From TrEMBL:
Pfam families: Beta-prop_WDR41 (PF25178). Gene3D superfamilies: YVTN repeat-like/Quinoprotein amine dehydrogenase. Keywords: Repeat, WD repeat. It comes from Umbra pygmaea (Eastern mudminnow). It comes from the Eukaryota. This is WD repeat-containing protein 41. The keyword Glycoprotein does not apply. The keyword Transport does not apply. The lineage of its organism: Eukaryota, Metazoa, Chordata, Craniata, Vertebrata. WD repeats lie at residues 38-78, 79-126. InterPro entries: WD40/YVTN_repeat-like_dom_sf, WD40_PAC1, WD40_repeat_CS, WD40_repeat_dom_sf, WD40_rpt, WDR41.
Amino acid sequence: MLRWILGGREAQGTVEKNSLLFIGEEQPKNWFTELQVLKGHFDIVRFLVQIDDFRFASAGDDGLVLVWNVETGERLLELRAHSQQITAMTAYSHAIGEDIHTSLITASSDRTLSLWNPDTGNRVQSVSDLQSSVKCLLVLERLCVWVSGGNELCVWNRAFQLQCQSQHHDDTGISAMVELPKNCIAAAMDKEIGIFRLTMSTGSQLSVAEVRRLSNHQDSIHALINVKDGLFASGSHVGELILWDDVDWTVTAYEHILWEESQTNTQAEIRLAAPKPSEMSIQHLTSDGELLVAAVGSGLYVYSVITRSVIAYRKTAHDSNILHTMLLPDGGLMSCSEDGSVRMWEMQDLPLHAEPASAGFFGMWSFSRSSKQAIPPVKKVLEFPSLKTLELTGDLIGHSGAVQMFLSFGEKGLVTCSTDHLLIVWKNGERECHLRSLALFRKLEANGGL
C-alpha cells in the first residue's frame, strides 16, 4: 500500500511549505502535496464556512471571525464583536436585485447573534441578551428566514427581527437542526427529535409549533443530517443510526453498531475491556444521497442508503475519536480526528482468504424497527458477502492538536482547523507549480522578457 505523509511537526505545530516525505514508488495523483499555514486565531478554531468560490470564514473559542482567501492564504477581514467563544456560524445567501449576496451569521456564548457583511467586515445587525446561548443555526432560504436553536427554537427574518419562537425546552436545549418538507424542522434535543412546523397566517405572520416528538433513541443524539429527498438520519452516543422518512417521520431503517467479546475459547483468549462510551458514539454523519458515512468513535462505517446495509468499515481508522468526515467525488472518503491527522480512504474488496474480523475484535450489527423493541438476532460481518474494507491512501499530518473539521474547495484545496489555533490550506503541488509558472511567464511578457 502506498502511504505518504506530509511534513513533520515543529514546536508550535507549524509545517513548512513543501515539507514532504513520500513512502512508495510514485506520488499519488491529484493529492495535497503542498500546504500553507494560516495564523490569526489565538484559541481553538472550531468552525469553517465557505462564502464563495474563493473565500471562507473561520471562528472559534477566541470569539474572532476571520475571512480568508483560499488561493492566496491572505487574511482579508477580522470581524470583532463577540466577547466569548463562537458556538455556531453559517452563511446566509439572498438576492439583491440580480446579484446573490452572502452574509455570515454568528452565535456566541455571550448570548448574542450577529449578521456580518463579509465584503466590508461591518456588523449589519445584532441581537443581544438572549435567554440562552445558541448552539445551532439553520437557514430556510425558501421562506427567507433563519432559525436559531438553544433552549428555544427562534425564527428570524432577514432584518434580524424575531418572528416567532417555541416554548422553553429542557436544559440540554437544541443541539442540531435540519430542514424537512412542508415547512417542517427536525431538531435534536438530547435523546429525542422534535418536529416543528412553521405556519404562515393570512396576515403573513409566522408561527411555530411542535407537532411530534420522536423518542426512538436510547441516548443523546450527536449527529442529525439530511440524506436525500425523502430521508434524514440521526446518530446517538451509543452507536444507534436511524434513517427517518422526512414526511411522516417514521423509522425506515435502524442500525446499532456494537462491539462484543468472543464467546469461543474464553479461557485462552485475553478478554477485551468493555468499550468506553466514546468508542461507540456517532460523532458525525455525512451523505451523498446513496452512501451514508458514520464516524463511530475512532472507526468509520459506510452504509448504503439504497440496499439498507453496511458495505464497508474500518473499526480503528484513527488513534482517537473522529470529528468530521466527507465523501469524495472519486468514491473515497476523508476523515479528521482528535489525534491531529486528516486521512483519506478508498473502499476495496476484502481478500477472499481473509476474514474481516473476529467477533471479539469487531462485533456485530443488529436491526430492528425501533430501538424501544428487543434487539433481534445478530447478523455477523461474514453474512455480508459484498462487504468491503477501507484502505488508507493518504495521511495529512500538520496539526499538533485535534483537527475539528475541514472544508473542501475542490481543485483549489482543502482547509483544516484545529485546537492548535492554526488553519492549514492543503493544495495540489503540481497545480500550484503550474499556476506559479504561468504567473511568472505573464510577468516576464509584461516586462518585455528577461
